[in-house]
């Protein structure tokens, strides 16, 4: 998606060789016009998949998932990183390791929102090592729902997550695949 790549080149900040800060438009301050284009592109790519639920993980994926859901005319479910008093009844649970935060979370989704009748598109802002995506895929499997695939805004293609998931048969559609990055040279895209 050329618009997204241009925005990454213009406003993204590379820290070291593995951190890409896009907080000015994607995951802290959110550019809703860009999100609308992202949502349209995910809908175009997964148009004939029968998606009736979008699943993400808190917090950075929620905004993107919500805008995307408008184009699928379906609800968004987000996996919570903590059990709260608001979640009553049984839950699907799995553990995920956050690349960004360097810690392991148990994430949960209420069983009343996901089941065998659902066709799920997972949406997230980044794919690096794939731990968050694997956790969400596990929750979909626990629920008996069918996985349509995963829509990823930015994939760090130099890290193993995307290739490993594709090798397992998961349809992963990334809008910008980063081949390499450095503070000196910026971002190089894979395609």
Automatic annotation (TrEMBL):
<feature type="binding site">
    <location>
        <position position="156"/>
    </location>
    <ligand>
        <name>xanthine</name>
    </ligand>
</feature>
<keyword id="KW-0963">Cytoplasm</keyword>
<comment type="function">
    <text>Converts the preformed base xanthine, a product of nucleic acid breakdown, to xanthosine 5'-monophosphate (XMP), so it can be reused for RNA or DNA synthesis.</text>
</comment>
<keyword id="KW-0808">Transferase</keyword>
<feature type="binding site">
    <location>
        <begin position="128"/>
        <end position="132"/>
    </location>
    <ligand>
        <name>5-phospho-alpha-D-ribose 1-diphosphate</name>
    </ligand>
</feature>
<dbReference type="GO" id="GO:0046110">
    <property type="term" value="P:xanthine metabolic process"/>
</dbReference>
<feature type="binding site">
    <location>
        <position position="27"/>
    </location>
    <ligand>
        <name>xanthine</name>
    </ligand>
</feature>
<dbReference type="GO" id="GO:0006166">
    <property type="term" value="P:purine ribonucleoside salvage"/>
</dbReference>
<feature type="domain" description="Phosphoribosyltransferase">
    <location>
        <begin position="51"/>
        <end position="157"/>
    </location>
</feature>
<protein>
    <recommendedName>
        <fullName>Xanthine phosphoribosyltransferase</fullName>
        <ecNumber>2.4.2.22</ecNumber>
    </recommendedName>
</protein>
<dbReference type="Pfam" id="PF00156">
    <property type="entry name" value="Pribosyltran"/>
</dbReference>
<dbReference type="InterPro" id="IPR050118">
    <property type="entry name" value="Pur/Pyrimidine_PRTase"/>
</dbReference>
<dbReference type="GO" id="GO:0005737">
    <property type="term" value="C:cytoplasm"/>
</dbReference>
<keyword id="KW-0660">Purine salvage</keyword>
<comment type="pathway">
    <text>Purine metabolism; XMP biosynthesis via salvage pathway; XMP from xanthine: step 1/1.</text>
</comment>
<dbReference type="InterPro" id="IPR010079">
    <property type="entry name" value="Xanthine_PRibTrfase"/>
</dbReference>
<dbReference type="GO" id="GO:0032265">
    <property type="term" value="P:XMP salvage"/>
</dbReference>
<keyword id="KW-0328">Glycosyltransferase</keyword>
<dbReference type="InterPro" id="IPR000836">
    <property type="entry name" value="PRTase_dom"/>
</dbReference>
<comment type="subunit">
    <text>Homodimer.</text>
</comment>
<comment type="similarity">
    <text>Belongs to the purine/pyrimidine phosphoribosyltransferase family. Xpt subfamily.</text>
</comment>
<dbReference type="InterPro" id="IPR029057">
    <property type="entry name" value="PRTase-like"/>
</dbReference>
<feature type="binding site">
    <location>
        <position position="20"/>
    </location>
    <ligand>
        <name>xanthine</name>
    </ligand>
</feature>
<dbReference type="GO" id="GO:0000310">
    <property type="term" value="F:xanthine phosphoribosyltransferase activity"/>
</dbReference>
